[in-house]
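Because discrete structure vocabularies remain unfamiliar, we turn briefly to a single example record, giving the amino acid sequence and backbone structure tokens:
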Amino acid sequence: MQVTLIFFIVLGFYLFSMSWTQQQMVGGFSGAFRNVFQVVEKFFPPNTAVISAIWGPMVETIQMAIIATTIAAILTVPLALLAAQNVTTFKPLYYVTRTFLNILRTIPDLVLAVIFVGLFGIGLFPGILALIIFSLGILAKLISETIESVDMNPLEAMRASGGNVFQVIWYALIPQVLPQYTSLVLYVFEINIRASVVLGLVGAGGIGLILNQQLGFYNYPNAMMIIILIFVVVIVIEYISTKIREALL
């Protein structure tokens, strides 16, 4: 009975939201569809002549994602260990690290990029900083949970045989989490490729900055070619990353 009541409340909320949204739209859904066709028509055919000019910024975007992911992957290791309850037995340190990671995850990458562009100016550096902090929040959280789910018997055996903290981590913990760690780093790299494009829209460099400029100048065929190139690059990187992760797990 309660489940049925909750279902109808949620359904009523959705219907109300759809009706209210349509009232706020100029011309309703039919007007919106007409506008979509008019706008999409301006983007075609894409201007293939700009490929040579936009390939450089596209490479910069990929480099930005690679640098940010690499630095974040290195910084993640100590943070993930401190945020794992079965490794960090000193509770105040564990809770402080967890709280720090929660704070990192609450700040959207776009907000970080706007802040760093204001501090350091337009370019790749603010985008890299924003992606590092954004990646740290995700990676450290996921890897700490992976560490908490490992088999503790090898760790206990190493401690019982006189191994120090670093030996326990190196010989008993890392072999268990290394495949998941590599897989998660590749997954975050895929996310960073997409995120770096968006960050460029607020001045963080790369292909996003060029896309924003072309849209601002109403060069829609050029913008369409940039969008197609981004789509192709993201698909290729995602395919390669997926194959590597399948081989690791």
